[in-house]
Write a structure and sequence with these properties.
This is Phosphatidylglycerol/phosphatidylinositol transfer protein. The chain is mainly beta. Helices cover about 5% and strands about 45% of the residues. It has a five-stranded antiparallel beta sheet with strand order 1-8-7-4-5. Strands 2-3-6 form a three-stranded antiparallel beta sheet. Bound molecules: 2-acetamido-2-deoxy-beta-D-glucopyranose. The site of 2-acetamido-2-deoxy-beta-D-glucopyranose has 7 residues, from strand 4 and strand 7.
Length: about 150
Protein backbone atom coordinates (compact mmCIF):
# COMPACT_ATOMS: atom_id res chain seq x y z
CA UNK A 1 0.00 0.00 0.00
CA UNK A 2 1.05 3.55 -0.49
CA UNK A 3 1.58 5.86 2.38
CA UNK A 4 1.40 9.57 2.82
CA UNK A 5 4.02 10.61 5.23
CA UNK A 6 3.37 13.97 6.52
CA UNK A 7 4.23 13.71 10.16
CA UNK A 8 7.84 13.30 10.87
CA UNK A 9 8.73 13.19 14.49
CA UNK A 10 5.29 12.88 15.91
CA UNK A 11 5.35 9.15 16.23
CA UNK A 12 8.84 9.05 17.60
CA UNK A 13 8.13 10.52 20.96
CA UNK A 14 7.02 9.07 24.24
CA UNK A 15 3.41 8.28 24.94
CA UNK A 16 3.24 11.18 27.38
CA UNK A 17 3.73 13.60 24.53
CA UNK A 18 0.68 15.52 23.47
CA UNK A 19 0.00 15.85 19.77
CA UNK A 20 -2.71 18.10 18.48
CA UNK A 21 -3.86 19.52 15.23
CA UNK A 22 -2.51 23.01 14.64
CA UNK A 23 -6.03 24.24 14.23
CA UNK A 24 -5.66 24.77 10.51
CA UNK A 25 -8.81 23.70 8.70
CA UNK A 26 -9.71 22.21 6.39
CA UNK A 27 -7.03 19.56 5.91
CA UNK A 28 -6.76 17.18 3.00
CA UNK A 29 -5.52 14.14 4.89
CA UNK A 30 -7.29 12.55 7.86
CA UNK A 31 -4.71 10.58 9.78
CA UNK A 32 -5.68 7.27 11.34
CA UNK A 33 -2.30 5.85 12.32
CA UNK A 34 1.41 6.39 12.12
CA UNK A 35 4.60 4.49 12.84
CA UNK A 36 7.95 6.20 13.30
CA UNK A 37 11.35 4.59 13.53
CA UNK A 38 13.61 4.85 15.35
CA UNK A 39 12.18 6.18 18.60
CA UNK A 40 13.58 8.43 19.93
CA UNK A 41 14.86 10.14 16.78
CA UNK A 42 18.65 10.18 16.49
CA UNK A 43 20.49 13.38 15.57
CA UNK A 44 22.10 13.14 12.15
CA UNK A 45 20.33 9.91 11.34
CA UNK A 46 17.46 8.83 9.21
CA UNK A 47 13.96 8.97 10.60
CA UNK A 48 11.16 7.26 8.74
CA UNK A 49 7.48 7.78 9.23
CA UNK A 50 4.67 5.68 7.87
CA UNK A 51 1.16 7.00 8.04
CA UNK A 52 -2.28 5.76 7.15
CA UNK A 53 -5.43 7.71 6.60
CA UNK A 54 -7.86 9.15 4.15
CA UNK A 55 -6.92 11.65 1.48
CA UNK A 56 -9.55 13.89 -0.07
CA UNK A 57 -7.34 15.67 -2.62
CA UNK A 58 -4.51 14.30 -4.78
CA UNK A 59 -1.04 15.26 -3.61
CA UNK A 60 0.71 16.97 -6.50
CA UNK A 61 4.09 18.42 -7.38
CA UNK A 62 4.96 21.51 -5.42
CA UNK A 63 3.94 19.95 -2.10
CA UNK A 64 6.06 20.83 0.91
CA UNK A 65 6.80 19.47 4.36
CA UNK A 66 7.88 22.08 6.88
CA UNK A 67 9.18 21.20 10.33
CA UNK A 68 9.72 23.79 13.03
CA UNK A 69 10.84 23.14 16.61
CA UNK A 70 10.39 25.73 19.31
CA UNK A 71 11.75 25.95 22.81
CA UNK A 72 10.07 28.62 24.89
CA UNK A 73 9.04 30.44 21.75
CA UNK A 74 12.52 30.39 20.24
CA UNK A 75 12.94 28.57 16.95
CA UNK A 76 15.52 25.84 17.67
CA UNK A 77 14.96 23.62 14.65
CA UNK A 78 13.71 24.21 11.14
CA UNK A 79 13.73 22.01 8.11
CA UNK A 80 11.79 22.17 4.87
CA UNK A 81 11.31 19.49 2.28
CA UNK A 82 9.90 18.88 -1.14
CA UNK A 83 7.23 16.39 -0.08
CA UNK A 84 6.93 14.83 -3.54
CA UNK A 85 10.67 14.20 -3.57
CA UNK A 86 10.46 12.46 -0.19
CA UNK A 87 7.57 10.36 -1.46
CA UNK A 88 9.36 9.54 -4.70
CA UNK A 89 12.40 8.41 -2.70
CA UNK A 90 10.11 5.80 -1.14
CA UNK A 91 8.74 4.66 -4.49
CA UNK A 92 5.50 6.63 -4.44
CA UNK A 93 5.96 9.59 -6.79
CA UNK A 94 3.39 12.35 -7.08
CA UNK A 95 0.63 12.65 -7.96
CA UNK A 96 -0.75 10.52 -5.14
CA UNK A 97 -4.36 9.70 -5.92
CA UNK A 98 -7.09 10.00 -3.31
CA UNK A 99 -7.22 6.22 -3.18
CA UNK A 100 -3.86 6.35 -1.38
CA UNK A 101 -4.24 5.15 2.17
CA UNK A 102 -0.65 4.58 3.27
CA UNK A 103 2.66 6.33 2.68
CA UNK A 104 6.17 6.48 4.04
CA UNK A 105 8.75 9.23 3.99
CA UNK A 106 12.23 9.39 5.45
CA UNK A 107 14.28 12.42 6.41
CA UNK A 108 17.61 12.96 8.09
CA UNK A 109 17.42 14.64 11.47
CA UNK A 110 19.65 17.69 11.15
CA UNK A 111 22.89 17.67 13.10
CA UNK A 112 22.04 21.01 14.73
CA UNK A 113 19.00 19.56 16.48
CA UNK A 114 19.34 20.28 20.21
CA UNK A 115 19.76 16.97 22.07
CA UNK A 116 17.84 15.87 25.15
CA UNK A 117 15.55 18.85 25.15
CA UNK A 118 11.81 18.65 24.94
CA UNK A 119 10.78 21.08 22.25
CA UNK A 120 7.41 21.75 20.69
CA UNK A 121 7.50 20.74 17.06
CA UNK A 122 5.11 21.74 14.31
CA UNK A 123 4.77 19.53 11.27
CA UNK A 124 2.99 21.15 8.39
CA UNK A 125 2.43 19.70 4.95
CA UNK A 126 1.11 21.84 2.14
CA UNK A 127 -0.15 20.57 -1.17
CA UNK A 128 0.97 21.89 -4.53
CA UNK A 129 -2.54 23.30 -4.90
CA UNK A 130 -1.94 25.53 -1.87
CA UNK A 131 -4.15 23.57 0.50
CA UNK A 132 -3.05 22.21 3.87
CA UNK A 133 -2.55 18.46 3.80
CA UNK A 134 -1.87 18.22 7.50
CA UNK A 135 -0.63 20.36 10.34
CA UNK A 136 0.15 19.09 13.80
CA UNK A 137 2.05 20.32 16.79
CA UNK A 138 3.69 17.79 19.05
CA UNK A 139 4.87 18.95 22.44
CA UNK A 140 7.94 17.63 24.18
CA UNK A 141 9.75 16.05 21.23
CA UNK A 142 13.17 14.81 22.41
CA UNK A 143 15.92 13.90 19.97
CA UNK A 144 19.09 12.12 21.09
CA UNK A 145 22.64 11.39 20.11
CA UNK A 146 22.32 7.69 19.40
C1 LIG B 1 5.28 23.93 24.69
O1 LIG B 1 4.03 24.55 24.63
C2 LIG B 1 3.41 24.74 25.88
C3 LIG B 1 2.08 25.41 25.66
O2 LIG B 1 1.24 24.59 24.95
C4 LIG B 1 4.27 25.59 26.77
O3 LIG B 1 3.69 25.68 28.05
C5 LIG B 1 5.65 24.96 26.90
O4 LIG B 1 6.49 25.83 27.63
C6 LIG B 1 6.23 24.74 25.54
N1 LIG B 1 7.49 24.01 25.67
C7 LIG B 1 8.62 24.50 25.20
C8 LIG B 1 9.81 23.64 25.41
O5 LIG B 1 8.69 25.55 24.60
Amino acid sequence: MKTITVLVIVAAVASSVQAANCGVVPTQFALTSFISTPSPPCIGRQLCISVSGTLNTPIIEGSKLNIAGKFLNHLVYADNYDLCKLLADQGTPCPLPITTTDATVCINVKTNAPPNVGSNVTFAAFNGDGGTIWCEETKGVVVKNC
